[in-house]
Design brief:
The complex is a heterodimer of chains A (179) and B (371).
Chain A (H helix, E strand, L loop, with lengths): L5 E6 L2 H13 L7 E5 L7 H19 L5 E6 L7 H14 L11 E4 L5 H8 L21 H9 L11 H13 L1
Parallel strand pairs in A: 1-2, 1-3, 3-4
Helix pairs in contact in A: 1-5, 2-3
Chain B lengths: L1 E7 L7 E4 L3 E6 L5 H16 L4 H4 L13 E10 L2 E12 L4 E11 L2 E7 L2 E5 L5 E6 L6 H4 L7 H11 L2 E3 L9 E2 L13 H8 L3 H14 L3 E9 L3 E9 L6 E5 L5 H18 L6 E5 L7 H16 L4 E5 L3 H11 E5 L7 E4 L10 H7 L5
Parallel strand pairs in B: 3-16, 3-17, 10-15, 15-16
Antiparallel strand pairs in B: 1-2, 1-4, 4-5, 5-6, 6-7, 7-8, 8-9, 11-13, 12-13, 13-14, 17-18
Helix pairs in contact in B: 6-7, 7-8
The chains are: A alpha/beta (179), B alpha+beta (371).
Chain lengths: 179, 371
């Protein structure tokens, strides 16, 4: 990416930001070209922050995408709800803000780890996971898991193993929109 | 990692107890005691390095003004690979004689003693906590500072090394001197000794190459560092910059750079020092690291620091009033300081969500954070 490129990451918390940071830099995005817009609201308010700021970020993306090489990455944990429910909710937020729905050619990726980003981290660290249990307190998170994220980035474009969490499979398609 | 600090009877810190994490952001109004915590830490580090005596470090007016107690107490808890270390220091002030002395200095590992210096007598313990030598010692100095590493005091030596390497900085770029007559293994309070410190670090050429690579994207046109010999001992630190075409390269001494460029240089050098030495415990206390640097530069540095902390390569304790830093860190790592005149400082975490839906920096600006 050149010096005028930028990827904006709209996310809930530091764990998501760190995951995105390592994934993007290992996909070749320069660290200085990533700008985080992380919830500054405090615990428990991250999801609302992402939902509330999504339309504004899409509007800003559309105002700049013609002359800047810009992308928008949106991350929010699914928690107990489905990935599709979150994506639909974000689409509805665009409509409510009088913005058109996300176009197929727009570099806007919506990433919804289910149950949350810790599920993906635990999977990448070799743990058998499902999308129902909450792994937020798993000891695996104490490991230096960013190397696994780098490995995932290195295999970008190749099919994920069948046992990977469905939400991670869904994320691969979203990724191709952005990078 | 420094897990906890306790301070009693030091300026506005009375019965002050604070728990710390891998990354911490001290927030609060001016005069709320944030920098006083750094001052305490810096003084203890200086004391344990053995560079000054107790009278020079703990002045008589450092006692809490509205108290009459003669004793100042300090405790530091460090979680290191060996376990939980506790360092205790008590300073006795004798105002009528204008004297100060060490009442006690103790070091524990997992509640077992490693050192007891009490009322002028040192009791040393071996790594297995069995009793070692007992001897009289000067009440005005740190006994810990005087002990040399031995095969049976590895824990004590490891702790001393960790504590004496704690970095407490308020970077003031105009004071950063371009020349140095020697190397210095530690950065000084305002980083006046950047050149001397960089001379020391530059023995690790791998680190220098990585630092130069990163700085080339932070400082447009930056190519490399070079030392120029000035006299027999002195070296002048110069930075070389190229134009976009690469056909014109010019060198500038450190003193010719802008304050912001020097601050960035300092901030990235701190990160690369931590990255290059993962076997060491790095504890960075930075008072307003965002001063002098341009807005787009704050987040890239902060994200990298945050990542190093999460990797366990460093611990960071930051003081800042900058919205960029506050909004990135405060929700998860903020500690709010409060202080009313002639009352002790109180701290509370910032971890509850807020219903106002405003960024924390905006809540602070409005005075709505806790009410």
């Amino acid at each position: 990416m050149d010096r005028y490129s930028q990827i904006i990451v709209l996310c809930e918390d530091s764990q998501q930001a760190r995951f995105a940071y390592h994934f993007l830099i290992h996909c070749g995005v320069h660290a200085r070209r990533i700008r985080f817009n992380k919830s500054p609201l405090g615990k428990g308010a991250g999801e609302q922050f992402v939902r509330d700021h999504y339309p504004e970020q899409v509007r800003l993306y559309r105002s700049k995408c013609h002359h800047l090489n810009i992308g928008l990455v949106v991350i929010l944990d699914a928690d107990a709800r489905s990935v599709e429910a979150h994506q639909n909710e974000l689409e509805a937020a665009l409509t409510a803000a009088s913005l058109r729905r996300r176009g197929a050619d727009e570099r806007i990726g919506i990433f919804v780890p289910k149950r949350n980003i810790e599920t993906w981290i635990c999977y990448l660290e070799g743990m058998a996971v499902n999308e129902i249990d909450d792994y937020s307190n798993s000891a695996i998170l104490e490991r230096e898991w960013t190397r696994s994220v780098a490995r995932l980035a290195a295999t970008r474009g190749q099919p994920l193993p069948a046992e990977a969490p469905p939400s991670l499979h869904a994320a691969c398609a979203e990724l191709e929109r952005v990078l | 990692m420094l897990k906890r600090m306790y301070v009693d009877n030091y300026k506005c810190l009375v019965n002050f107890d604070i728990s710390l994490d891998r990354i911490n952001l001290f927030l609060g109004e001016n005069g709320s005691g944030k920098s006083t915590v750094f001052e305490v830490l810096q003084r203890i580090v200086k004391f344990v390095r053995g560079v000054s005596r107790v009278e020079e470090i703990f002045e008589s007016d450092s006692r809490t003004r509205w108290h009459t107690q003669p004793l100042q107490s300090f405790e530091l808890d460090f979680a290191l690979t060996e376990g939980l270390f506790r360092y205790e220091l008590s300073i006795e002030h004798k105002p009528e004689e204008l004297k100060r002395r060490v009442r006690h200095e103790r070091l524990w590992l997992n509640n077992g003693p490693l050192l007891r210096f009490e009322l002028g007598e040192v009791h040393l313990y071996r790594d297995d906590h069995s009793e070692g030598p007992v001897y009289p010692f000067d009440w005005s100095q740190s006994a810990l500072a005087s002990i040399f590493p031995r095969h049976d005091n590895r824990h004590l030596s490891r702790f001393k090394e960790t504590l004496s390497r704690v970095v407490v900085l308020q970077i003031l770029p105009p004071l950063m001197v371009a020349e140095s007559a020697r190397e210095d293994p530690r950065p000084s309070w305002n980083l006046e000794n950047y050149t001397a410190w960089y001379r020391y670090l530059s023995h690790d050429q791998g680190m220098v190459v990585r630092l130069q690579e990163t700085l080339s994207s932070v400082l447009p046109g930056f190519k490399s560092f070079r030392f120029e010999q000035v006299g027999e001992q002195h070296r002048l630190l110069k930075l070389y910059f190229a134009n976009e075409e690469g056909n014109s390269v010019a060198g500038y001494s450190l003193g010719e750079l802008s304050d912001g460029q020097r601050a960035l240089l300092a901030l990235y050098t701190l990160l690369f020092d931590a990255e290059a030495n993962p076997d060491r415990d790095h504890i960075l206390c930075l008072d307003e690291p965002d001063n002098f640097i341009a807005l787009p530069e704050i987040q890239p540095w902060l994200v990298r620091l945050h990542d190093l902390c999460q990797q366990g390569l460093t611990q960071a304790i930051l003081i800042s009033h900058h919205p960029e830093l506050i909004n990135y860190l405060a929700a998860e790592s903020g500690i709010w300081f409060e202080h009313e005149p002639n009352r002790p400082v109180r701290v509370k975490p910032i971890n509850e969500g807020n219903l106002a839906g405003l960024p924390i920096a905006e809540l602070i600006a409005r005075g709505w954070l806790h009410g």
